[in-house]
Amino acid sequence: MAAATTAPLSSWPWTFLGNYKYWISVPFAARALYANFYNAAYKDTDNWCLHIFVLCLIRYQTFFYASLFQHLHGVVKKHRVSAFKITFEQLDREFHWDNFIILQGLIALAAHSWVPGFSNLPVWNYKGWLYVVIFHALVTEPLYYWIHRAFHDGHLFKNYHSLHHASVNPEVATTGNSTFLEHLVQTGLIALPLLGAAVMGAASISMFYFYILSYDVLKMYGHFNCEIFPESLFRAFPLLKLVVYTPSYHSLHHSSLNSNFCLFMPVYDYLGGTMHPKTEALYTALRKGRKEEVPQFIFLAHIIDFMSTMHTSFIFRSLAAEPFGPRWFLWPPLILTVPPMFAMWAWGRTMVYSEYLVGRVHAQVRVIPRYGFHFFLPFGKKSINGFIEEAILEADRSGVKVLSLAALNKNEELNGGGVLFWKKYTNLRVKIVHGNTLTAAVVINELRPDAKEVFLTGSTSKIGRALALYLCRRGVRVLMLTNSRERYEAVVKDAPVEFQKNLVQVTKYQAGQNCKTWIVGKWIFAKDQSWAPPGTFFHQFVVPPVAEIRKDVTYGKLSGMYLPKNHEGLHFCEFTMPRGVVHACHAGGLLHALEGWDHHEIGSIDIENIDKVWQAALRQGFAPYV
């Protein structure tokens, strides 16, 4: 349904710039800042330039917080218009949703020289506000209605407006996802009330801020996936239904295409006979609240660090749709995430990050409001376990089948890989799963069949122990890097007597200098990697992944699995994983739910289950990420 790129004015003139389009605004921003703070002689003439620059920044911030609020599952779940089934295709299509802000900023800057008097407007004039409202209601609204209807006919819809309607489940970003021609027309409609007030001699700076920001908020509100307008106001003031549209009202326009064309005021749909007959019923049903569907599987994750906060779908969904990596341009907007960070720290509970389906299994990803470094603070252990325990008990009460623990949430020193909760609540119906069995299986099955010796770091961890015990039975000599003789001997004790000779304790990285198969379960620095001989293959199950600093070795991928092809609704990349791939422990928990296994997977890995889990994963349609 995407608009044809060959139609005149369908594509944006700066499309070829890609993400470099933002440099268009740099000369204007520089001029405004210079004139207002370093050269008073030009302050009056360039005051307008500064206001436009500031207004654009406020508009970006407004859209950011609106999008964040829209994805707060705990707030919107009861009244959301449709279940979140956003796809990567929609995210890619809406990636440049903000083109209209750049366009309107440039046009406003041009108006600085075209229209006299714009440089010396007063800050306040209440008449201007009144004129803007009148012009909007009597001029912009009816014009928009008829132009919008025209864009739904034949040629205009196919070549222009179909791009906007390709997003069947609208979100805040859908607001700006339209063609260049459409936004030119819409910019003209926005300008009419402002020019009208200016002609009447009542324009002011505050009027421009008020109208443009109000317009943005109302447009975002219409694309909001939650019916938040209180029913009590409609009951008290019935005529409001003709003056204020709602998200459910606009959602019917996206689903039916031939009704509810209004901008913000349904009165014009009423007069034009284009109001959808189910408008009232849908609104009433959504305000009563929908019964939340209980997921069969929950993956309980956590945020790695402050920078990765912006890689969550409820902060920057476009960034979350790509593998995480350091990006210099993320530092300036980091301040936007500070309020959510402190809110999560002070009042946070586990929150829904995303939802998706695999076959008939409804999966949900939740995050606890703590960052990676919190897990290593002595005083943080109790609170983190409290969050995890609360999530487990809530899942148990709700009827969730499986709850899987991610990365540090199952740390041995924290809760023994989930054993703490199993011992405390012996009658849990929800199955606690750490998913490490599949992680171990992934590492084992990516080793070369002819490997006779491996150098293993993190060798006494849950996964490291399982790898050592499994490989030694296969006749592989395992060089176990550990300084603890006691922990090494505990692993050896669990191996069959005839294979114990294959487990060798080493205490320095130099011991791996002749071994070309390294399995990394603990972060290693550059000096540690230097001991590996050329041609070494680094297999790894450590998060974050090992820094790739050498050219003469091969770095394996983190242990991950491609989800079965029948998955839908997934619209985020799990940390550094590409699209459609999740960490093996995540896949292991999901596999538990798909197979309907009725046991907890906690504590130490059962070596006997590794092959069973691997075969089950392949049977369910998972594929190794290599």
Automatic annotation (TrEMBL):
Topology in the lipid bilayer: Multi-pass membrane protein
GO MF term list: iron ion binding; oxidoreductase activity
Major subcellular location class: membrane
This protein's UniProt keywords: Membrane, Transmembrane, Transmembrane helix
InterPro entries, alphabetized: CER1-like_C, Fatty_acid_hydroxylase, NAD(P)-bd_dom_sf, Sterol_Desaturase_Related
Cellular component per GO, a single term: membrane
SUPFAM superfamilies recorded: NAD(P)-binding Rossmann-fold domains
Subcellular location: Membrane
Keyword Oxidoreductase belongs to the record: no
Domain Very-long-chain aldehyde decarbonylase CER1-like C-terminal: 454-624
Entry's Gene Ontology BP terms: lipid biosynthetic process
Domain Fatty acid hydroxylase: 134-274
Membrane-spanning parts: 20-41, 48-68, 101-121, 128-147, 190-212, 297-316, 328-347
PANTHER family to which the protein is assigned, alphabetical: STEROL DESATURASE
Similarity comment text for this entry: Belongs to the sterol desaturase family.
Entry protein name: Uncharacterized protein WAX2C-1
Protein's organism: Selaginella moellendorffii
Upper lineage: Eukaryota, Viridiplantae, Streptophyta, Embryophyta, Tracheophyta
